[in-house]
Amino acid sequence: YPPLKVALDILKPYATLKLRAFVLLATDGIPSDRMEYRTILTEYKKLGIPIYTVFVGKNPIGREETVFIAKSTGGKQFTAFEVEELPEVMMKIAKEVKREVMTRVTVEIEEEVKYEEPIYEVLLLIALLALVVLWFINKTLYKTTF
Asked: Which of 68 and 118 is assigned the larger pLDDT?
């Protein structure tokens, strides 16, 4: 719930300005706060902010939860059965988002101005960095090998 709430608070101004925004959520899909985060999914949908989910693991219950999140907000669900698959999955999402998140802003004063800028690259890099940090922490804490 907390990461989705923070992301929603950050992205609300974009939705207000009718700019496309999205959230990329990588998770094992098994939340301890299911009812809390589900309450804000309707707000994501209402604002037109899709959540693209990446399920990491093999638990069918977790995968179902990420499918629910994506469908509830207009996003898409992806799966990485192993951590090593994350870069490939992230590239798929980047291609998907690139098609959908190009933004056009037209301001009419005395002349027309067009401005296009993809906003997915920075967010994708931040998400990828967060995944690497979480993987390193998991590896350190649980002394797993991949």
From this structure: 68
- Strand order across the beta sheet in which 23-27 lies: 23-27, 51-56, 77-80
| Per-residue model confidence (pLDDT) at position 113 | 66
11 contacts: CB under 8 Å, gap ≥ 6 = 21, 23, 47, 49
Side chain identity at residue 94, one-letter code: A
Burial class (CB in 10 A: 0-12, 13-18, 19+), 93: buried
Among 95, 145, 143, smallest CA distance to 120 is for 95
Q: Which tokens belong to 43?
A: 């707000």
Residue-wise pLDDT tens digits, 78-90: 999 988 898 999 8
